[in-house]
Amino acid sequence: MPEMPTKLAEIVDEFAAAPRDLVLEMLLEYADVIPPLPAEIDRAGMEQVPECQTAFFLRAQVQPDGTVLTWFDCPPEAPTTRAFAGILAEGLAGANAEQVLAVPDDLYQRMGLAQAISPLRVRGGTAILARLKRQVREQAG
Questions:
Q1: Domains of the chain by range and CATH?
Q2: Distance of CA 115 to CAs 105, 110, 126, 132, Å?
Q3: Residues 16 and 110 sit within 8 Å (Cβ to Cβ)
Q4: What is the pTM of this model?
C-alpha cells in the first residue's frame, strides 16, 4: 500500500512532536512557502474551496509520469490557510498520484493542529486536502 510522501510525513512528525505553544508559530512559517501563481495559471482554471473562510483556490495536475503538480492561490491576509497550502506544497513536491491519495484525511489532526487553532480552520484545511485528492483521483483514473 502506498504511503504519503516522506517529506510530508516528516512535517507531520515535526508538528506532532512540537510543544503545543510552538505549533502555531511553526504553522505560520509555512504561510510564506507558497510560490506565486505562474502567469499561465489563473483562478478561472482553479477550484474554489468554499469551506475556507477566505477566498482559496487550488489546482492539481497529474503529469504523464504520474507526478502531481499543485497550485494554490490564497490572500496574504489569511496566514493560517496559506500555511495549510504551504505544508501541502512543500510536503507533496515531487510526489506521485498514489502518494498524494495516500495522505490521511485527518492530516491536520495528526499534526496536533486541532489543539492550536479553531475547528473551523482545521475543517478548511481538511477541505483543501479533500478537494486536492479528488482532483488527483479524477485525473489518475
A1: 6-38+48-140 (3.90.1010.10)
A2: 17, 11, 15, 24
A3: yes
A4: 0.93
